[in-house]
Amino acid sequence: MHLHRYEKIWLILGAGGLALFILLLCINAFAMGMAPPSNMTMIDPAKVTETPPFDNPGLTKVGEQEYDAYMTAFAFGFAPNKMEVPLGAKVNFHVTSPDVIHGFQIPGTNVNFMVLPGHISSATYTFDEPGEYLILCNEYCGAGHQVMATTIIVK
Questions:
Q1: Which domain holds residue 19?
Q2: Are residues 105 and 57 in the same domain?
Q3: For this structure, is 93 an active site residue?
Q4: Each residue of 92-139: pLDDT tens digit?
């Protein structure tokens, strides 16, 4: 079979581009480590309810106007189911899941991340306006997904 000179050039360019892509993918996956693209810490998903501080989820005061919120997302709810913080509080959310992938979103804020089993996902937000903030699961997690919510009350 005879190939035209331009066909040969395009075949070489296409194969070269594909080889470069596979090489970069291998370097990224193996040489740089196969890890989530963040500073997530790991936890055994089978032992979430036994591992401190997730064995007693809730708010912990860590400084003046600063709190750590340790939460678990499970089918089909969050623990704790309600939290209260003072106005102007900076809250560091640390969330994990023992079962499936969940979402964690506070509408009207920039807090929005996925909660993966075995990973502790984190985000920080300062509550400058009083009110009741809803926390939703925005990742479909099963038949009861639509009832999965909790609130933060800012006073």
A1: 1-34
A2: yes
A3: no
A4: 999 999 999 999 999 999 999 999 998 999 999 999 999 999 999 999
